[in-house]
Amino acid sequence: MFTGLVLGTGKVVRLNRRGVDARLTIEAQFDLGDVRKGDSVAVDGACLTVVEQGGKIFSADVSEETLSRTILGNYRTGTLVNLELALRMSDRLGGHLVTGHVDGLGLLVSRQKVGDSIKLEFQIPPELGFYLIEKGSIAINGISLTINECGKDYFSVNIVPHTAEKTTIGLWKEGDKVNVEVDIIGKYVAKFLGKVRGRKGSKKDIGLDFLSEHGFL
Q: Least packed by Cβ within 10 Å: which of 16, 135, 163, 164?
């Protein structure tokens, strides 16, 4: 589990294809601390397991599923990536709960300077847009961000200078693809309500009676 607060960036050393899978090697641009073999690291928001580690360099195996659903398959030697180490139970939850399981890809369609900040607008598949709400949370390439505006197939965020400086956002260009993970709480709520509303003969709206019936009151 992660928070979406990027610890720092890293540089891709190599991506070795192994049939349909791959092994990714990254050099972190900060001290990895007590990271060991078997630990989890979020790379641009994708949770990977460390299989080799020495100094600031670590390797992780990447499955065909991850390569097909994320931007990791497009990495080249020298690509800069966002890195976050797994959350400790004693850590501050400064962002939001991020699983590191990428839901799909987004496309950066607009980048505008607004004062000292940057406004970014992304196009996403409608099935992901269903889970978005204004002022809700979303993880983009592993960065916890607050949604300014959203619709069926788009959303926008505002990037403050500190976030742009500490992550790879400063390098993003219109037309770039990004990893998107929607809020896990929203997914669970949507599934629960879908099951309730899908019951035969159930046409109930959400109100006090509904909440009481299902143990919330």
A: 135
Kindly state whether residue 124 falls inside one of the protein's structural domains.
yes
| Residue whose entry in the numeric block shows the structure tokens 């993880």 | 139
8 A C-beta contact, residue 41 and residue 2: no
CA distance 105 to 76: 18
By C-alpha distance, which of 102, 88, 97 is closest to 44? Answer: 102
pLDDT bin (cut points 50, 70, 90) of residue 66 is very high
Domain of residue 67 covers 8-85
pLDDT in tens, 115-143: 999 999 999 999 999 999 999 999 999 99
On whether the CB atoms of residues 45 and 82 are closer than 8 A, the answer is yes
Please tell me the total count of domains within the chain.
2
Q: Is 45 a member of any domain?
A: yes
Same domain, 81 and 122: no
Per the model's pLDDT, the better-predicted residue between 91 and 44 turns out to be 44
Q: Is residue 198 part of a domain?
A: no
Instruction: Report whether 62 contacts 81 (CB < 8 A).
Output: no
Tell me what pLDDT residue 130 has: 92
Of the candidates 131, 135, 177, which has an alpha carbon nearest to the alpha carbon of residue 152? Answer: 131
Please list the residues that pair with 144 across neighbouring strands. Answer: 139
